[in-house]
């Protein structure tokens, strides 16, 4: 039996042991520290092997839901609701064939990662002249290391998903801002053209009014209508003032 097979043998033992957990203990298990990443693995939430099929997942879901359903835990309803939500999400993932395939790929990736890590640790020990025995050489040590590595694989996938989602959202915001800017520019141009057209008649009217006033002034100096201004008579004071001195 290789280490990976031993891991699943230990997992079956754990499942049998956990089958006797109380409602509160199951809620604690699902909401334990690190559950944000641990619960990314639906097999972990439902305590199933990666080879489990959808019928086994539904059967296990039904069994666990009877324990942690909020109605069954009125004194611990808030935590029960959170645990029950995690349970429902796990089942929905395992009912999706594509998601099941991706989850199983995480286990294969974890085995490959762990093999490299073990090989590197042994190589380093040999280089230092030490025995190349490592903790992962024992079934329990390997099972623990594999469990940690599987969790890391799921966490890495989630981080990558969030990064891509954030990048896509940033691109959407950038495009939306560009569209908004272009729309505002078109609106300003349209308002300018509209105001220009509306003020054209006003400008023409002002020009016509100006020309009419100018024409009236010119009429005073044209044809028969022109009358020279009357001569201005000098007063006696002005005559005396302008009289040459002898």
Structural summary, described in words:
The chain has 246 residues and is an all-alpha fold. It has a domain at 12-95: Orthogonal Bundle (Helix Hairpins). Helix content is 75%, strand content 0%. The chain contains nine helices and no strands. It has helices at residues 3-18, 23-30, 35-38, 42-46, 54-68, 77-94, 97-127, 139-219, 236-242. It is elongated. The mean pLDDT is 83.
* The CATH C-level class name of the domain at 12-95: Mainly Alpha
CATH topology of the domain at 12-95: Helix Hairpins
* CATH H-tier superfamily of the domain at 12-95: DnaJ domain
Oligomer: single chain
How many strands in all? Answer: 0
Q: Which structural class do you get from the secondary structure elements?
A: mainly alpha
Poorly predicted residue ranges: none
Gross morphology: elongated
> Element order, helices and strands?
HHHHHHHHH
CATH architectural label of the domain at 12-95: Orthogonal Bundle
Measure the end-to-end span. Answer: 153 Å
What level of helicity do the residues show?
Answer: over 70%
Helix tally equals 9
Rg (CA only): 46 Å
Sheet with the most strands, sense and barrel status:
none
Mean pLDDT: 83
Strand percentage, roughly? under 5%
Domain J: 41-111
GO cellular component, one term: nucleus
InterPro entries: DnaJ_domain, DNAJC8, J_dom_sf
Protein name: J domain-containing protein
């Amino acid at each position: 039996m290789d280490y990976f097979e031993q891991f699943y043998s230990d997992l079956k033992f754990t499942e049998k042991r956990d089958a006797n957990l109380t409602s509160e203990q199951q809620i604690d298990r699902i909401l334990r520290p690190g559950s944000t990443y641990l619960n990314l693995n639906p097999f972990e939430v439902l305590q199933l092997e990666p080879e489990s099929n959808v019928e086994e997942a539904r059967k296990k879901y039904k069994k666990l839901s009877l324990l942690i359903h909020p109605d069954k835990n009125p004194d611990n309803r808030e935590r029960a609701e959170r645990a029950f939500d995690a349970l429902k999400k796990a089942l929905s993932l395992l009912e999706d064939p594509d998601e099941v395939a991706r989850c199983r790929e995480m286990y294969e990736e974890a085995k490959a990662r762990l093999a490299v890590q073990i090989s590197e640790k042994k190589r380093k020990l040999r280089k230092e002249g030490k025995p190349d025995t490592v903790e992962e050489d024992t079934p329990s040590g390997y099972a623990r290391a594999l469990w940690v590595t599987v969790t890391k694989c799921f966490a890495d996938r989630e981080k990558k998903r969030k990064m891509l989602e954030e990048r896509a959202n940033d691109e959407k915001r950038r495009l939306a801002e560009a569209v908004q800017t272009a729309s505002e520019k078109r609106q300003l141009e349209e308002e300018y053209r509209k105001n220009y057209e509306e003020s054209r008649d006003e400008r023409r009217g002002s020009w016509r009014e100006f020309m009419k006033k100018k024409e009236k002034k010119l009429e005073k100096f044209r044809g028969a209508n022109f009358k020279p201004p009357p001569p201005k008579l000098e007063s006696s004071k002005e005559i005396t003032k302008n009289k040459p001195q002898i």
